[in-house]
Amino acid sequence: MPRGERPLGPEDTALLRFAGDLRRLRDQAGKPSYRELARRANYSPTALSDAAGGRKLPSLALTLAFVRACEADPAPWTRRWRELAAEHTQPLQPNAPYPGLEPFTEHDEKRFFGRECLVEQVVESVKLKPLTVVLGVSGSGRTSLLRAGLLPALDDAVLVTPGADPLHDLAEALAEVFEHTTADGLAAEFRADPDHLRLRLRQHRPELVLLVDDAERALDAEDFLKAVTGCPHVVLAIRADHQHRWRAKNLDATEIVIEPMSADQLRRAITEPAAKIGATVETAVIAHLVADAANQHALPLVQQALVETWRRKRGMTLPFAGFEESGGIEHVVAQAAESFYEGLAEDDRQAVRQLLLRLVSVQRNGLAQRGDRRRDLDGDTGLGSLLELLAKARLVTLTEDGAELAHDAALRWHRLAGWIDEDRENLRTHQQLVTAIELWEASDRDPLALYRGVRLRKAKDLGEFLTVRERRFVDMSTKRENRRSTALIAVMAVLLALVPGTVVYALANERKITEMNATALGGKALSQSEALLEQRRPYADKYALVGYEVSPSPEAEKVLRLANAVARGIPFTGTPKDDADVLVGPRGDMAAVTDQDGTDRMWSIDEDKATPGKRFAERHRVVKLAERRAVTRDFNGDEHLWAVNDAGDISYLTALPRRFRTLDLSPDGSRLVGKVGEAVEIGLPTPDESEHAELYDLSDPRSPRKLPMPVRNPETVALSQDGRELATGTWDPAGGVTTIEFWRIGGTVESAGPALSQHVYVRGITYSGDGRWLAVEHSAPESVVEVWQRVPSGTPVLRARLDTALRAGARVSFSDDGRVAVVRDNVFEVQQLYTNDRPADRLVYVVGHGNSMRAVYRPQNRDFLVRSGGQDPELLPYDLDTTRIIDRMCHAKDGARLTDSEWVKSFGEVERVEVC
Description:
The protein contains 28 helices and 39 strands.
């Protein structure tokens, strides 16, 4: 009989209330036994019982496993756990190696890493030219660079931070430099003649370097500026949003821009300070922070996340468990935002809400992103001071173009996320308005680019949400709309008076019609479509539709499908790399595409459009992509597991075992199989004899659980859609036979049916999504794909054999309605399968498409995504349903109709064929 729970007693502490609520959560779930909870949560019954025991705070991972096992939402429990954990966290010790949100000071020289090259660049500039200006956005580390980097690196330097009286602040900083003088005396001297500073330095300290922090505060103080810029060695640090004020001074200077830290620089900034005091940072913590912050101005957020992890250290190690409990950068941002918001008056809270929403854009797929940098935000009364406060709180970054949210994590602050949901439609309207204004300005303010009609009415409804620049655009659009309406009324009056004469004129000049039979017209239209396809020019699909409608045939249907796919091509706009690797997710809604620097970026695919998302850690390439999971390989050859909730929400989970090579990841992301021991180190002449396959359960993706592997070292493997079945292919070179075995994966691994023997070397195995079909690819010696129908607990039945003269390996995928798509090199074909003796029907065979990517079936669109034949990383949505193609074209605005000029140019005066 199971042991009962220990009574909690009065819930008079936060810890006891937390434990009591966990118990009530279990009651609401039907009060399953702790043994049953253990089966669901993958934790022991004792650990789960202790979590609700009230004696100590359970770990975050254990708490969330308990909550998920009770089928509850983990998000509110995560926030509550962190609030409770704050009371139990160790106080920050004085030897913490990170400064948190505060800048580094001159006392932090020994823990200031990652900016060595920048320090050298500024020091070299000081030697070559009298005046150096360092420009950086807010949060880029200008103060840290001057205090912890340049002050120790320069032999003779003094730091000045101007305030309300810049010249007096300068005098105070130099009072100790010059003997027998005071700050007041120096200030009076410099006011009388700013050039006295230069003369004093030449006489007494010719090598002194003057470092001026926050120099933007003194750009309007002419006496200060004249005094410091006349010195022999000066470095001014100016925030990027004030660079236009600086450049208006027309002073000769070397400008150095503080760029975001690269992954390697950030890695040093994380690991080296800890190493200086004998501490270590776990690899998973480093990888997670690098993925979240590399190539962004987010060092203060990284430092604060490390401070919070330091509070939860184990000995002298900063563990990933402690980092996860602290919440990482996301929690740092949320905590800063909440603290800032709670300190505001009600009026200021409304203003902050409005300002932050202006920095958000909502894409067509509904995904909220940090918006494009907004100009003239400070043109509205009061926003300038709020921006300064938000920048100081590390929530907003002030840039040369205006302002933007400091990090994507700000979008997940619960208040901002709620505001976005409430104003989602207005945000989408606002994003369209901003784009329209940019187009209007790019067209030299062409009146035709102004708003009118429904778009103008929606823009007016934004009201106080509009900035000064946006209100000006709306006002101009309104005035033009009013003038246009007045002119239209006058024109209509004239036309009504002329109607009889107009009709007579039109009839008298009716165009003569010539004849062309349907076959000739259809052939001419198809020829025109194919010519346009070769040149990748528009209208190819419209000509193909004319050809199909006037003279239907299998050839016309083939051209129409292909032309429609090319017309709907999905480009990855902004990806600079030609011939980039493209890996599409199993449902066709996301893709990983390689950028120029060799790093993969996630993209969201919404019907016929791709939207960029987040990048993985520097030089990480995706090797497998599943639903909500991805496996990447870094530049060292190590593989890593990531969570991919959507293209804009990816996060690091864990490093996979050393020298692990992924062979397959189940499409639902629940199981992973690969090999360990393969010769990956440079210089090894042969594979390691210890090479073996390993199988992992990813129910808890941060701690993959190893499962028994039924075959030690198979040549090829495949996982079913739900990861519950594994196929292994083992080659016997002596007998020349590959044995394919099927295994059911649960708590144990057992046989799932009779084995399949192939008297060839099997190169690949692919399951269909519903498990009904199995594709086996082998070389004999050409590439051959055999498709077998699965029989429950019986031997598979061969239903199709797809062979080719190509030796290249095949990439196979299935639709959910019995079609199989095969890509070999640049050949793409689709065949319809049958569950009887009827041979498979070839539906598509296209040369010039495919290009090293398997075709991916999109059930939501009922089409295949296939790589285009060019070097651009473009995808073609290939729809095999001709009726649906025609319906889509006919319902699009002018989607199926050729213009009059194009019709006449191609077919002369043949009577127009109406295709819809």
